[in-house]
Design brief:
about 375 residues; alpha/beta; Rossmann fold; seven-stranded parallel β-sheet; 12 helices; about 45% helix
Length: about 375
């Protein structure tokens, strides 16, 4: 039976990398969940997606919906179509923002996962569901220190933001569904950047924020520890890993870290390479507690006066907790399942392409 995949997050960074890989396999058809005011807008977005991803038009169909709405925003006709056609689900949609209020993060991530699981149960009861692949994040680890294993989930960790918290809550619901007997795999990428070969990305977030303020000359003082590890993976490798893992029956019921793991590089190594690539000045390091106590009170009133300054302040509040230390993500299951393909390319080998693409595109923001 041909696999018909319901793909959430199809128009996002990971979704657009997954789409061509999904349809490349044995006649797979994708039902892309697409938001839109009406059918015409949904069709325009579907056609744009097909063109952008370079996939056969007849292999990608749009279903109007919204992951943040109850029941994925599917009306009766769309729901009936999905239940009669879909044989698997890849849930790649998420609100990857660290500053969302808890209720919005819950609606975008937790409630969306609950809706996906409810649909998966209906497909499973109808004996149609081959598998559900749930894309989570390695940062469900939160503030956990030391090694975080693929079987770990709630180990009593604290969280740096509502994104981490909401993704852990989502995974708890997925774990419960696995215990019910639903065929599910969980995929946990670390920090996802552009393609290794080109640097191309659709989302200039997370790592791109400190890179942007450094390259633009807005800031060169780093409030954190230079020996902090930063686990970075390219989006094309993540998409490759997910598509490979979902073709293996023995991956059901298991969790996979899509991360550099023990090969993650330090802030100092990344900063030195970026300075060399851009011709920028050396990065200065300051203890974060000292920064918050002495430096931040002095600069806050001035930065808050401008749009640029307010952006720096918001980004700093969101990302500074990651500059104090991060877990090491154990990748044993991923490497055992995929062999050599279970290890991402070393970030220092493709970092220049990531930086060049971001700079050439002005980080997606002319301001």
């Amino acid at each position: 039976m041909t696999d018909t995949v319901l793909l959430t997050g199809a128009t996002g960074q990971l979704g657009t990398a997954l789409l061509p890989r999904l349809v490349a396999h044995n006649g797979t058809v994708v039902l892309a969940l697409v938001r839109g005011r009406d059918a015409a807008e949904v069709e325009r977005r579907r056609a744009d997606l097909v063109t952008r991803c370079g996939v056969p038009d007849h292999r990608v169909h749009a279903v109007q919906g919204d992951v943040s709405a109850p029941g994925l925003g599917l009306d009766a006709a769309a729901r009936a179509r999905v239940e009669s056609e879909a044989t698997s689900i890849v849930h790649a949609a998420a609100a990857v923002r660290f500053d969302l209020p808890a209720d919005k993060a819950a609606r975008s991530n937790i409630a969306a996962t609950e809706s996906v699981l409810e649909l998966a149960r209906a497909l499973h009861q109808a004996r149609r569901l081959k598998r559900l692949d749930h894309v989570s994040t390695a940062y469900v680890a939160g503030r956990h220190t030391g090694r975080f294993h693929e079987h770990d989930l709630d180990v009593g960790q604290q969280f740096r933001n509502t994104y981490e918290w909401s993704k852990l809550q989502s995974e708890l619901r997925v774990r419960a569904a696995i215990a019910e007997g639903l065929p599910i795999s969980v995929h946990r990428p670390s920090i996802v950047v552009g393609e290794a070969a080109t640097g191309r990305t659709r989302a200039f977030n997370v790592l791109y924020w400190p890179l942007k303020i450094y390259v633009r000359g807005w800031w060169r003082t780093f409030p954190g520890r230079p020996d902090t590890r930063v686990d970075i993976v390219p989006v094309d490798w993540v998409a490759d890993a997910i598509t490979r893992l979902r073709r293996l029956d023995d991956t059901l019921g298991r969790t996979f870290h899509l991360a550099a793991g023990d090969d993650a590089r330090t802030v100092r190594e990344l900063a030195e390479r970026i300075a060399a690539l851009t011709g920028g000045p050396p990065v200065r390091y300051i203890d974060q507690a000292r920064y918050r106590r002495f430096v931040r009170p002095l600069i806050w009133p001035f930065l808050s006066l401008t749009r640029r300054g307010r952006g720096i302040l918001r980004g700093g509040e969101a990302y500074m907790p990651y500059f104090l230390g991060n877990p090491v993500f154990d990748t044993s299951s991923t490497r055992a399942a995929l062999g050599d393909a279970g290890s991402p390319p070393p970030v220092l080998e493709y970092l220049e392409r990531v930086v060049r693409f971001a700079v050439d595109r002005d980080f997606g923001d002319p301001g």
